[in-house]
Amino acid sequence: MVNAFLLAALAASASPQAERLESLCAPLRPGVAMDLSGTSYRPEQAHAPGDAMAAVDARQSMLLLPDGRFLLRTSNLYPGDIEFRYRTLGDRNGERTVDELGWRDGDVLQQDDAATVARDLADLRMLAPGLLACDAIARNPGQPAAGGAASFKDGAGREVTLAFDASGDLASAKRDGDVYRYEGWNTDAALRLPATIIHSRDGRERERWTRVRARPAQAADTALLSLPDGYRPADPPPSLHATPLGEGAYRIDGAPSGYHTGFVAGEKGIVLFDAPVDVDEAKAVRAVIEKAAPGRAITYVVISHVHGDHVAGLPAHADAEVLVGAGGVAALRRQLGDRLPARVREVMHAETLELGDRRIRVLPLASGHAATMLVGFDPASGTLFQGDLFYIPERGAVPVAFSTGRELATLIDSNGLDVRTIVGVHGRSGTPADLRGAVARIPARNDRGCVGEQMTGAVACSTATE
Fold it and tell me: Residue 455's closest CA among 247, 288, 225?
């Protein structure tokens, strides 16, 4: 009899949270269409070298259906108006992702398996508290929330714990090192939503969504479950090698990361442009350089800008002199500590590096992407080396340039550079004609392809891709 009374008391104390779970879940049992806008925090990607973190304008539109089908569109705007815009379509068996703007991955169709889908879907559901409530009900039947918390295993088998505040609203969801906080709850058309969602990982804030809008999915939404035509799986990657560009200039192709290091070999040494993306890859690249230009030391490493992916391999070149843009030394020390090569100096004005039989020009550029931007030019081969100013994918059409492309075109013209080849850290090499054509197509306005508006926005905007 005592046990019966105890169980009844526990059930009664749990009922407010159980009722709140049901009230959150019920409107979204048909699925959810959702738009989010806010800020994503990315380490060592800021414009100013003194800032360790970049605040990236982030937008997201997603459709999550009960049978596991989903659509995700993301748009992230980095310094210099460089936009990453991706579209992912999936179901429980797998997912496919394309680069809508075509500048980073071109026409490549990325394909991932069911295990990846399980993790990705579980991550997306953390942004839809109503779906978490449905998961808590479905995955832990007969165990109503009690003591202000409810727990269940997500679709990838990871433990999720929901915590409620004193008013009964969902306050947070925790999973391993990830914490999602839900603040400023309000009700709109019977759908209860937080005004802000804050995602932290291992104690560091990763995203802050400050505009959260959603509606129940509708039958007509299935028409959104499509990808644009013209994409196909990636080609097999080449082996790591140095591609000659003529007159002693080279580009490294086939690196595991997909990044390209450029270099020029002269009688008295080698100038290297950037050191991506970690020490192991930089060591492998160095071995290829030593084979292509035997007996010559790497005397200089010119860093295009101090974003982490461009400098992480510097410890592999401890014997070289590192050249960096104004203010960049402190950023390198922050990132690399005592692994930073001993000889580092900032380039304040245009200068020339002597390699005996040839001279390499190093030109600072006031760029919206990074304040430490440097561009290298080898007059003998007509090769210009740059990082993140102009992009052409490994495969696919030459895309529209960002404002950084205009910056590069202006630098070339104002300095009278006789450029024949433009080598970037990302993607294939291009020509001045490619650059001019891409710059000419820069739109007057970027509506972000309707990402962050597509599912719930009243304002008409284009979701078409070029």
Answer: 225
